[in-house]
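Human: For the file, kindly provide a plain-text protein record giving the amino acid sequence and the backbone structure tokens, at your earliest convenience.
Assistant:
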Amino acid sequence: QVQLVESGGGLVQAGGSLRLSCAASGRTFSSYVMGWFRQAPGKEREFVAAIIWSDAHTYYADSVKGRFTISRDNAKNTVYLQMSSLKPEDTAVYYCAQRLDFAIATLQRNDRYDYWGQGTQVTVSS
């Protein structure tokens, strides 16, 4: 079993920055993917970014490319989402998630992830 604990959400003005953290505990596997998703009111949960733990290769949704950066700290077993140039459209509950396999074709599908954090609110004011 894996537990994911998120932190770092809050209120920020448009153009500002936030860094989200997701600490993983419990059993981990040698091959897995960590991802970030977000869900705004009235919208479906959408893919934001993912990182392959073994080699740190990253993937991003088009909407956040150039503004968000996903990274990991192996020693702390933690994944981060650095968010810059934030826009009101980025307002959402952000979730970290882990999947135990890897397939590029399904990387953005939330139903392929096995474990989820509780979510942290990010609000970007105009």
